[in-house]
Amino acid sequence: MNVADREAVHAAFDEVVAKFGDLNVVVNNAGVAPTTPIDTITQEQFEQVYGVNVAGVLWGIQAAAKQFKALGHGGKIINATSQAGVVGNPELALYCGSKFAVRGITQTAARDLAKDGITVNAYAPGIVKTPMMFDIAHRVGQNAGKDDEWGMQQFSQYITLGRLSEAEDVANVVGFLAGKDSDYITGQTIIVDGGMQFH
User: Least enclosed by CB within 10 Å: which of 15, 161, 162, 192?
Assistant: First the structure.
């Protein structure tokens, strides 16, 4: 589905519950991250990034809460933000702004939905070895007339643990937020970045 399309998201949730009979955990994970130096940002880029990264999370929260309530139980909503939603990163104005927005929506939804037994949290990955991250590094390097390695170093040079994240590092935190051990946690953003940011 196109997560930026509210009706498509709600329809997909209806289909999931109709097929499986229940729903307990939702992870709003879709995201796009074009390189956007300030003077190059277009209306089309703005609408795409905020449509996927912000509206997609909002529609996912909305659809999840509707289903949990109809099913008569609480649930867990987990949103993807980013280390770039904690501190601004160079040449990523749209991505950073959208991920800061996810943190604010997460906090507000946690307060609004607590009475229904629904927790809402977020996870903030750092530099994960994914094709999207390698593409960002390539573009940042290209914009500076440098190579891909230089581009990656702009983001990874301050990782305290001294290595890039594997996908499993992030998945483990999402698994924790999805399970019973996190039942008393809501409205939080857990940073999973190897020590790039301390809060």
Answer: 162
Q: Provide the whole-model pTM.
A: 0.90
């209806």: which residue's tokens? 14
pLDDT in tens, 67-81: 999 999 999 999 999
Give the torsion sign (CA, 95, 99, 104, 105): positive
Q: 80: how many CB neighbours lie within 10 A of its CB?
A: 21
Q: Please count the other Cβ atoms lying within 10 Å of the Cβ belonging to residue 84.
A: 24
Residue 76 tokens read as 């867990």
- Report DSSP letters for 27-81, one per residue: EE-------B-GGG--HHHHHHHHIIIIIHHHHHHHHHHHHHHHHTS-EEEEEE-
Q: Which of 50, 69, 76, 95 is catalytic?
A: 95
Q: Which one of the listed residues 99, 123, 146, 180 is annotated catalytic?
A: 99
Please work out, in degrees rounded to the nearest 5, the angle formed at the alpha carbon of residue 45 by the alpha carbons of 40 and 47.
140
Residue 184 annotated in active site: no
